[in-house]
Amino acid sequence: MPLIWDYDIKELKKSKQGRLLILERQINYGVSGKEKIKLSEVKKNWKELDIDPDRRRLFKLLIWGK
Question: What is the pLDDT of residues 28-42, one digit of tens each?
Answer without folding.
Answer: 888 878 889 999 999
